[in-house]
C-alpha cells in the first residue's frame, strides 16, 4: 500500500469531512488516522490514508478539486515507518498554568534535550473560573527512549515549571 499524509485547511463549514472522505473512498483509499479541529474559524487537520499503489496517482489528482472547499497538501508517507519503537515507552505529560507566551517552547525544549519525542500534543486556553485571565492547558503523549533518564527529565520539568509558573505532571501513559 502507498501511504499519504494529507494536511487540510479551509473555512469551517458543514460537510468538509464528508467531502474529503468521499474523495478518499471513491479512489480506493482507506482513512487510517486523523486529527481534525476547528481553530479560529478555520477547519484544519492531518489525515493518514493508504491506497493501492496503482490507485495512488488517481487519488492525488482527485484531491486537487477540493481546493475551493479545502486546501489539501499530499505528502508521501513512510510505508515502512515504525510507529512506536518497541523499546521506547510512553508517558503522558499534562501542563496547566496562567497563559503566557513561551510555554510550549520551554517544555518542548526540555523534552528535546532528553531525546523524547512528542507523538501527540493538544493545547487549549480557557478562562480561569475564579481568578480571571486565561489558563493554558496541554496534554501530550511522549515516547521515552531507553537511553533517557526519566528522573532527570522529571527534575528538569519541575525546575522549569517553577520558573515559568505552570504545573507539569509526567505519568505513565
Describe the structure.
- Residues 92-173 form the ACT domain.
- This is ACT domain-containing protein.
- With 173 residues, this protein is an alpha+beta fold.
- The protein has helices at residues 16-26, 56-63, 103-113, 150-164; strands spanning 2-11, 30-39, 42-51, 71-76, 89-98, 117-127, 134-144, 166-172.
- The protein has a four-stranded antiparallel sheet with strand order 2-3-1-4, covered by helices on one side. The chain has a four-stranded antiparallel sheet with strand order 6-7-5-8, with helices on one face.
- It is flat, with a radius of gyration of 20 Å.
- The model has no long low-confidence stretch (mean pLDDT 92).
Briefly say what this structure is.
This is ACT domain-containing protein. The chain has 173 residues and is an alpha+beta fold.
Keywords:
173 residues, alpha+beta, Alpha-Beta Plaits, 2 domains, four-stranded antiparallel sheet, 26% helix, 43% strand, flat
Amino acid at each position: 500500500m502507498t501511504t499519504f499524509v494529507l494536511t487540510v485547511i479551509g473555512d469551517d463549514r458543514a460537510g468538509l469531512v464528508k467531502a474529503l472522505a468521499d474523495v478518499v473512498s471513491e479512489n480506493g483509499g482507506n482513512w487510517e488516522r486523523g486529527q481534525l479541529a476547528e481553530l479560529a474559524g478555520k477547519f484544519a487537520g492531518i489525515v493518514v490514508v493508504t491506497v493501492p499503489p496503482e490507485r495512488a496517482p488517481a487519488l492525488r489528482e482527485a484531491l486537487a478539486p477540493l481546493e475551493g472547499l479545502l486546501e489539501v497538501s499530499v505528502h508521501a508517507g513512510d510505508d515502512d515507518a515504525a510507529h512506536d519503537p518497541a523499546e521506547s515507552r510512553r508517558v503522558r505529560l499534562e501542563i496547566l498554568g496562567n497563559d503566557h507566551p513561551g510555554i510550549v517552547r520551554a517544555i518542548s525544549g526540555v523534552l528535546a534535550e532528553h531525546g523524547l519525542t512528542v507523538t501527540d500534543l493538544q493545547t487549549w486556553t480557557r478562562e480561569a473560573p475564579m481568578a480571571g485571565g486565561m489558563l493554558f492547558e496541554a496534554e501530550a503523549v511522549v515516547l521515552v527512549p531507553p537511553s533517557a533518564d526519566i528522573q532527570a527529565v522529571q527534575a528538569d520539568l519541575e525546575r522549569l515549571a517553577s520558573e515559568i509558573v505552570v504545573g507539569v505532571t509526567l505519568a505513565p501513559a
